Request: fold
Amino acid sequence: MNAGDIAFVHFTGHGLQIPDNDGDEPDGMDEALVLFDSRLNDDASLLRDDQMWALLEKLCEKAGPSGQVLVLIDACHAGGGARGKISSSRQHRQYAKNSPDKAPLAAFFACLPHERSFQIMGEDRKPYGPLTYAFCLAMQQATPQTTYRSLFEKVVRTMAGRAFRQTPEVQGELDILLFGGRVEAPPPYFTPLVVLDETRAMVRGGLLNGLHPGTEVVLYPVDTRDTVGVESLAKGFIIDRKAAFGVRAGA
Reply:
């Protein structure tokens, strides 16, 4: 990793609380992550919050003030899992900010320290970690003007409707541009909801999106961001003006 780089640290897995080993926790419990080689009966094999913060500090030092570090912890008891060590119990929940010679850090957590995190079902009927799922949806709407705070607000709204038994938490430098503004704004697109037959499909869109009867639509491969030079799979037009529109695909 070099100065000016952007680091993304993503953990989806198991988290738990274990007895505090250095007296810096008001509740007497450390938050910890269960790694691939951890042993649940061996606290030393777990990654404690203090250890996590030390590793992230080194990452921020390497990235430098022109870089950024984004952390996503999608696990039980995740909240506060990257906080710096603060000796005063009264200030323990006041997270340390990065110094001017380090990269700014933003950290998203799936739940509060005392809460568990529960898998949710996505629209494809597959199980996902709730923070990971909400983050991916929010990133689809990200633009060069998106800040970490506004991104987290989108995450909260999604989780509120799907993971209501837990409270996502955030810490760090939030009022800066996501990835330094180096975000490619997604092109306007609409995804199919239901394929009716070989020539018709229902798509997610409406009149407010400019999908009027007769509007031409073009079908491209998944993950196409720049259509220049990309051959379309099919062309069609809007044939119905309901909440979700029928698209007739054809030459």
